[in-house]
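Students often ask what a holo structure prediction actually looks like on paper. The answer is less mysterious than it sounds. You provide the chain, you provide the ligand, and the output is a string of discrete structure tokens encoding the 3D arrangement of the protein together with thiamine diphosphate.
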Amino acid sequence: MSDQIKINQKILDFNTQLQEQDSFFPVLSVLDNQGKIIDKEALKRAELSDEDLVNIIKRMLLSRQLDIRSIKLAKQGRFGFFAPTAGQEASQMASSYAFNDDDWLMPGYRDIPEIIVKGWPIWKAILWSRGHVLGNEFVTEDGKEINAWMPQIIIGAQYVEAAGIALGLKKRGKNAVAYAYTGDGGTSQGDFYEGINFAGAYKANAVFFIQNNGYAISTPRSLQTAAVHLAAKGWAAGIPSVVVDGNDPIAMYLVSKEARAWAVSGNGPVLIETLTNRLEPHSTAGDDPLRYRKQDDIDSWWQKEPLIRMRNFMTEKGIWSLELENAYIDEVNTLIDEQIKIADNVEKQKVSNFIKNTLEIPGQAMNEQIAKFESEGK
Ligand SMILES: Cc1ncc(C[n+]2csc(CCOP(=O)(O)OP(=O)(O)O)c2C)c(N)n1
Ligand SMILES: [Mg+2]
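The corresponding structure tokens follow.
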């Protein structure tokens, strides 16, 4: 009897199992912290023209300026909610460059720049931050619908919606995908698992991003989960899962392009964990990062931020300079000034309008509230 039973000792060696989990996920990177090429083959595979590179750095700079100006406006009480993006420009702007207008963007609250580069006017984003109903219209300046949903505040909820849209795109034979962003904290939500699991089972056209920026408000990545890599969660859903240097714009673009090509061909979703860092407070609502992390740590991540790499890489290549960068920054700031004026001139939202816009058919209590506020001219 005992001769017939063979136990693979490794199965019961839990220590080895834990040690091996780490080695399954090599990190994709193309540029080092200073922008030097460390993987020529990968760079070639990205097939980025000089024009593409200029477009990507411009999108990253647009995002950085929006971040700087939004924080200033918030301090002046002229902005609503804002979740800073500095440090995540490669993770957000180089990744989204791999998608096109037909693809559906499913953003979280920190993903405002990805919607803007899809054509959402900045003044609408400002109104969204202020809770104004017109900020929930996802249309271009000339009224064209944008394939993006509202930035999701409920952590991870956009993953479920993305799975549904991705399956719809597949069933209709569309040459498009749904691409969704959440954070490291988002991967602990049920919605995250439900979304990737469903999309995996139905081989839906989805690309899922986890922006691992080190923190979920004050909860460090180390306390979020014991999983060594967040990408490992994709294995439970049976989908290809990768880890990428999220501060490397070329690696971010390459992995996103390949993931999109895979998903749009009917193979099912891909999960991408981007290793990045949030360089600023969680939001403009009063978070103080120094209560849960050290200044040294923040400073060290500023040395690794994505704009340094992209600027150095492109300057070395002879297609970028500080003069070009400063001229573009001026252009962006003029645009932002104009957009702030437009947002400020939009008629203020009345409380009664706010309630009217909440549900298509207001309930009895809401109707009473609407009547009360209207009678007070509010
Ligand atoms: C379902 C849900 N639970 C809790 C919150 C409160 N909350 C807002 S942001 C946040 C942290 C999210 O962290 P992460 O997913 O890492 O995204 P990041 O803010 O770092 O981009 C939490 C817990 C929420 N908005 N929704
Ligand atoms: Mg986070």
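Residues 110, 153-155, 182-186, 189, 213, 215-217, 278, 282 surround thiamine diphosphate (ligand 1) (CB under 6 Å).
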